[in-house]
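Appendix B, record 7
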Amino acid sequence: MKMHQSLGQGRNLFTGYGDGHVLINAERHDGNLIVSGDEIAAWAAPDFAGLAAEHFDALLAYQPEVVLFGSGRNQRFVHPRLYAALTGAGIGVECMDTQAVCRTFNILLAEDRRVVAALLTI
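Structure tokens (predicted):
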């Protein structure tokens, strides 16, 4: 699906998504990703079954207010023990399907929130 493109200067915005990929500022990205307003990085998480606390602990370095976890095509909830370091630091964690993360991320970023998306796209 293609999303309405409204690029903020120097900001990463989701402009589309599909099976196994997302578009950020109209550029295709495959694989699991960490996305902040100004950075895109590969996420070492292999898949939903392979998620571990260290995958979520890595998100602390981004100093987000909220982390949006995208579980792929279907919404799946991560056990809270996996992201305990985030909630312990006062960081909110929301679990949703990856498509919903793309839409929500753009809204929160437009509100100048420190949001990070952790996406499983494969």
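Remarks on this record: Residues 1-7 have pLDDT under 50 and may be disordered. The helical segments are 53-57, 84-88, 98-110.
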